[in-house]
């Protein structure tokens, strides 16, 4: 039996699991996929992100091919998964707000303060998903097709015996082990900690914290139109640029930057939004989307954007091993690039090469990730 273990059930781990069990050479009678996560599916950034997707915003970078293929794959997945997880193409605007005002835009923006509007994307090249619902749909499908989800914290990986040591989440403190034939580390911003077990994994993979709030807007007399809004707010002597995503479930998501940066805690369960960040985000919302900001708040949250040592995610086989892989450090595009990453890594593991047509030349070299510490 070939046992492929994926550590981490975020966007990257869930997409890898889905694409492994759907790979043409996957045979459930001979191959087994186990996903292990310390808290649960999409418990970190992959459940709290905006879920915005852009086809061509990575053009001219090493991620161009990955992003374009991922954008296309999102549209395919929306049909294949047959679950409503809020996938929809949408228009995208950049809107500048200042005391000067003078311009008009969609009704739910503060018309008195809109000073410039430009189109960043249309329904042909920008879209959105509800990330937590998508990751659950992917994992549910993977499990239906033979994958197994284990809740537990990986505390060591012994590559000399192909053994994972983990502590199950179900209150037991006893360490358990499982053996693998192949292992994929997809621990998001926590991936750097895996360098203690596998030294060729860059220890500098880390994360930065970002806060977000979700408003329930379904009781507003008028529907919030499906426009993603990238803002530039220059008011009251301050400049800020939160992003705003209305969702088809009658909510509006807004995320911004932390005014109180924090270091990555050991577990996603320990990530909490700071009251100051929540207050600041609500203030910004009141300035630019006053009707929305007056609606009930249904989530106040924070999460860590995974940051790689270079400009590209760390994706591929780990140098010195033929059965250890990494997929992490997808920055602010891990929801977009999850499907393409799933396609690439599943092919690399099951057939030894990338044949799906995604150009990975700027990301890996002969299947080995191209990033150095
Ligand atoms: C506020 C915000 C908004 C964003 N908006 C967008 C957006 O609109 N579009 C977009 O494309 N991207 C967006 N992103 C980026 C995106 O969320 C991330 O790139 C993506 O979620 C990373 O996925 P991941 O699977 O690598 O990591 P994570 O989601 O962090 O998942 C890592 C998983 O590993 C598990 N894990 C860690 N250590 C262990 C261990 N020792 N044992 C077992 N399990 C472990 C964790 O429990 C976790 O579930 C946003 C990010 C933030 C913070």
Automatic annotation (TrEMBL):
Residues 4-348 form the FAD dependent oxidoreductase domain. InterPro entries: FAD-dep_OxRdtase, FAD/NAD-bd_sf. One of its GO terms (cellular component) is cytoplasm. PANTHER family: OXIDOREDUCTASE TDA3-RELATED (PTHR13847:SF150), SARCOSINE DEHYDROGENASE-RELATED (PTHR13847). This is FAD dependent oxidoreductase domain-containing protein.
């Amino acid at each position: 039996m070939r046992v492929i273990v994926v550590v981490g059930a975020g966007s990257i781990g869930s997409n890898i699991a889905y694409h492994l069990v759907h790979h043409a050479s996957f045979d459930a009678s001979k191959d087994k996929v186990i996903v292990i996560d310390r808290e649960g599916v999409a418990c970190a950034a992959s459940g709290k992100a905006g879920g915005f997707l852009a086809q061509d915003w990575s053009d001219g970078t090493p991620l161009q091919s990955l992003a374009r293929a991922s954008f296309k794959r999102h549209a395919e997945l929306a049909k294949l998964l047959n679950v409503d997880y809020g996938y929809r193409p949408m228009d995208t605007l950049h809107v500048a707000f200042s005391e000067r005002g003078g311009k008009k835009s969609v009704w739910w923006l503060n018309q008195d303060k809109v000073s410039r509007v430009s189109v960043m994307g249309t329904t042909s090249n920008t879209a959105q998903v509800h990330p937590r619902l998508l990751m659950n749909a992917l994992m549910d499908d993977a499990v239906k097709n033979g994958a197994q989800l284990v809740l537990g914290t990986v505390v060591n990986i012994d590559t000399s015996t192909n053994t994972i040591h983990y502590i199950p989440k179900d209150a037991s403190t006893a360490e358990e082990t499982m053996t693998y034939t192949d292992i994929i580390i997809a621990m998001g911003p926590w991936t750097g900690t895996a360098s203690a077990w596998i030294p060729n994994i860059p220890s500098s993979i880390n994360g930065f914290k970002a806060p977000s709030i979700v408003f329930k807007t379904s009781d507003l007399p008028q529907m919030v139109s499906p426009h993603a809004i990238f803002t530039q707010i220059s008011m009251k002597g301050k400049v800020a640029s939160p992003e705003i995503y209305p969702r088809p479930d009658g909510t509006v998501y807004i995320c911004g930057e932390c005014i109180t940066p924090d270091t990555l805690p050991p577990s996603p369960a320990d990530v909490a939004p700071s009251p100051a960040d929540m207050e600041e985000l609500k203030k910004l919302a009141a300035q630019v989307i006053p009707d929305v900001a007056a609606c009930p708040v249904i989530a106040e949250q924070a999460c860590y954007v995974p940051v790689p040592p270079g400009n590209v995610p760390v994706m591929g086989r780990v140098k010195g091993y033929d059965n250890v892989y990494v997929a992490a450090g997808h920055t602010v595009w891990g929801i977009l690039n999850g499907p393409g990453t799933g396609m690439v890594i599943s092919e690399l593991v099951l057939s030894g090469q990338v044949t799906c047509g995604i150009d990975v030349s700027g990301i890996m070299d002969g299947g080995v990730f191209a990033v150095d510490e």
